[in-house]
Each structure stands twice: as structure tokens, then as C-alpha cells.
Sequence to fold (171 residues):
Amino acid sequence: MSHKVFISQEQISNRVKELARTIDQDFSGEEIVVIGVLNGAFMFVADLIREIKSPIILDFIAASSYEGTESTGNLKILKDIKVDIKDKNVILVEDIVDTGLTIKELQKDLKDRGPKSLKLCSLLHKPARTIHENKIDYLGFEIEDKFVIGYGLDFDGKYRELPYIGVYGES
Ligand code: IMP
Ligand code: MG
Fold:
């Protein structure tokens, strides 16, 4: 099944390069612990770290706060990071900030572990859906309130493999 392209491969790739450049400027060669939020951020984080020139330690965290297309309002850590982030520069990388709950809870949890700095990078943000405010330090694209798929994002586990971002239901 194909979907109408909402954000193309080329647009994503250009934006990823810009974000990486900004990150490199901000950290000026210091080591960064990059934490990708599974599963949605796997493709974004893979592309992003290949563009960042600063030394990187990569880890992943998995949390669940979602069912179908509506947030349940619960967060469970399903898979934790292995790396000790105390006194480290950390960037948490998410696919999309929707209501903001997942990332708010995750940031709280990580902050308690005493990182030197903790920044948030998200490929997408739907401001119309915000319930929990978060400062997104590095944002790919602000989008309207549409359910998007592809480039890591799924609907019921499907379409993560698409190399672009499409809108679910629009073909
Ligand atoms: P939040 O806690 O409401 O911000 O939910 C964030 C999570 O919901 C993201 O990490 C995604 O996994 C999922 N999500 C929210 N909106 C979409 C969407 O449009 N497409 C696919 N997944 C989404
Ligand atoms: Mg996610």
C-alpha cells in the first residue's frame, strides 16, 4: 500500500543535516549520549547520528503510553538504557511529540539520573495536540493534526519502513 507523500525523503534528509549541524555547534566536539526512543525513532536516530560529527554513545529506551491512535495517559519503561548518563550530555531523540506525555515522563525519569545536560530532539511536533508542554531543543518539522506514518512511525505496527512520511488514510 502506498501513501501520499507528506514529507519527502529529500526534505527529511536536508532537515536531518541541518539539525546535526546545529547539534555539533552546540556541543563543540564534546561527547553526546544519544538516546533513541523505540520503536518510532529508530530510522531518524540512525540518520541523525551519521550526520553528527561529535563523538556519540548511542543507546535506546522503550516506553509505552499509547494504544491505537489515542494516548492512554500511562507511561511504562519497557526497555531501559544500559549507559550511565550521570554527568553526561544527553540528547533524547523522539519521532513525534503529540500530547507531550511520553516525552515529559521520560525526561523526568532521565533527569533524576543526574546528566550534565538533557536536550530533546524530535523529528515531528503537532502543536495542536499539546497537553503537556515540552521544550523541543531540536525540532525537525512542525505539522498539523494529522496521523502520520513512515520513516519509523507506525499505525498498529505497520508502515515504519516507508522512507518518507505519509498521512494515514490518504493515498
Ligand atoms: P504523546 O505521549 O501523546 O506525545 O505520544 C507520543 C507517541 O505517540 C509517539 O512517540 C508516537 O509513537 C505516537 N504518535 C503520536 N502521534 C502519532 C502519529 O501521528 N503517527 C504515529 N505515531 C504517533
Ligand atoms: Mg514513539
